[in-house]
Write a structure and sequence with these properties.
two-stranded antiparallel sheet, mainly alpha, 2 domains
């Protein structure tokens, strides 16, 4: 009865337990959207109710992933349903577990402060920002920052990282950024600067209702 001792799934062709990064990435996108909407509501209407529910779900999600089984994590199940028709992208389970511990600690601290103590501070603001950055990089770029930290902190090298980012390798020609491409980025930056100078007052002022103004002018 020594089965289920490992964290992750045993898949033929892989020497260590792995997880499906496609569903993990999809779930990160869902979590980012929930957290971002909650943040917008806080900043725009000072409504803290949604974020308290979101944090409660996050704590449950990470707790199930780490202490029960990722198979039964509610949001991961939703992610699996969404990308279930896509071919799996296997990643090492060890570094994902490390990354999820980071998410568990952040969400637990925020839950204690915002839900249990019903208080907010600079700590909750910074924790929320870190959480958003981690989830955005995971969902948008497929970059697991926690996995990168795992490779730095742990002696044993992380295996099967998303996009093979843990392996030192030369970039393919299609991945290289040329001098002309850098000049394009510089041109965009210059355009934004010139735009801000040309429309400085327009950017600061609140837009008026075009049709309402036309209606008044016709009288």
């Amino acid at each position: 009865m020594k089965q289920h001792k490992h964290f992750g799934e045993i898949v033929n062709g892989y020497s260590i337990p792995v997880l499906n990064n496609r569903e993990i990435r999809a779930t990160a996108g869902i979590m980012f959207l929930l957290a971002f909407i909650s943040l917008v509501l806080i900043l725009s209407t000072e409504n803290f109710v949604p974020v308290k529910y979101v944090l409660s779900v996050f704590v449950i999600e990470f707790s199930v992933r780490l202490f029960v089984n990722p198979k039964f994590a509610p949001l991961l199940i939703i992610g699996r349903l969404i990308v279930g028709s896509q071919y799996p992208e296997y990643v090492g389970a060890a570094q994902k577990k490390f990354a999820w511990y980071i998410g568990f600690v952040i969400s637990t601290v925020m839950f204690f402060l915002l839900v249990v103590l019903n208080a907010y501070s600079l700590i909750t603001g910074i924790a929320c920002l870190i959480c958003l950055v981690l989830m955005f990089f995971e969902s948008a770029f497929g970059i697991c920052i926690g996995c990168k930290l795992y490779g730095i902190i742990k002696k044993d090298k992380a295996q099967y990282c998303p996009g093979e980012i843990c392996d030192a390798k030369q970039k393919h020609e299609i991945q290289k950024v040329s001098r002309n491409q850098l000049l394009v980025l510089l041109g965009l930056l210059l355009f934004i600067v010139l735009l801000s100078l040309a429309f400085k007052n327009n950017f600061k002022e609140k837009p008026h209702n075009l049709f309402q103004e036309t209606k008044y002018d016709s009288k």
